[in-house]
Amino acid sequence: MSRSRPAVALGVVVLVALAGCAGLSFTGPTGSTTSTGATAANGTTTAAPAAPTSASASGAYASLYDRTIDSVVMIRVVTPTEVATGSGFVYDDRGDIVTNHHVIANARSVEVRFANGTWENASVVGSDAYSDLAVVRVPDRPANATALPLASSAPRPGESVAAIGNPYGLTGSITTGVVSGVNRSMSTSDSFTIPGTVQTDAAINPGNSGGPLLTPNGTVVGVNRATEGDNVGFAISAAVVSHVVPNLLANGSYTHAYLGVSTTDVTPAIARANGLSNASGVAVVRTLAGGPSDGVLHGSTGYATVDGQRVPTGGDVIVAIDGTPVQTGEALSRSLLLHAHPNETVPTTVVRNGTRTTANVTLGTRPSPSAATGA
């Protein structure tokens, strides 16, 4: 039996993107990088060797497996209703293991199985539903279960990668492929997305959730999370992991900056309906009443039909935030996640009624998933 979140369609108004959680692998109900470098959890940056040629790819993947499998774990979770398994990997020398939030959500107990077959009871150190990241800690681990380095820069499309984990409970499985794309969005809940994600054609199946997506050099470029049909998988980027996980270790949670708007990417139809010269930027559909942008940014005032499409009109179009150009909703979400903080006032450049202007928005704190809406 397996559980996975259903695919979420790309909406016209609310900023939502391709999704489909790889989920967990169930064992039954309760009772039954780039090639440029890598950064370890302690912050040390090391140069990575050149990636292998296609002629040596098979041997390179076998070598990768041998070098990293001891650092990849199975995570077994008991919830009030079932027993499930996922994956994770050793993050630091303290025994901290990174996985997905959805792997350990609602856990009554967590156990970790290492490649040598030993099991350890684990405690949840911290988790964040919005980035779908979590950290669990074990009191002891095999000496060869060492920390895997995180990529210090984004991978390039076409780079070779491998996913290692426990699909359907099959321990220590490896699948291979390439980076198909970067800076994708995955939806989580309540219309929010995880930005900056890595797309791959390496097979990611239920039970792979939380495992590493690795270059042949052994560098983690993402945490496997989602699948969207054949040959389309997604992993939370190393950049997001590097940003969120230290906060989970220090505070047990991560506080997200909140703009309080619902948005949609500007399409040619939206550009035509609003008299924009370029189909670029993020249209503000509405602002949350009483939210950070209420009275500062302007939502749409109506709708028009262009080429059979109903599109918003009259609202602000965000084209930059804090000086960084914004062409898509993914770029806006990525900037808020990686560079912004609650209570920070950020200059937000918008096109309003055909005129480029700057509005200063004091960011709020994103509410809990059950109460949240918008960006």
TrEMBL record:
GO terms for molecular function: serine-type endopeptidase activity. Pfam families: PDZ_2, Trypsin_2. InterPro entries: Chloro_Bact_Ser_Proteases, PDZ, PDZ_sf, Peptidase_S1_PA, Peptidase_S1C. SUPFAM superfamilies: PDZ domain-like, Trypsin-like serine proteases. Coiled coil: none annotated. Keywords: Hydrolase, Protease. GO terms for biological process: proteolysis. Residues 258-363 form the PDZ domain. PANTHER family: PEPTIDASE S12, PROTEASE DO-LIKE 8, CHLOROPLASTIC. This is Serine protease HtrA. It comes from Halarchaeum acidiphilum MH1-52-1.
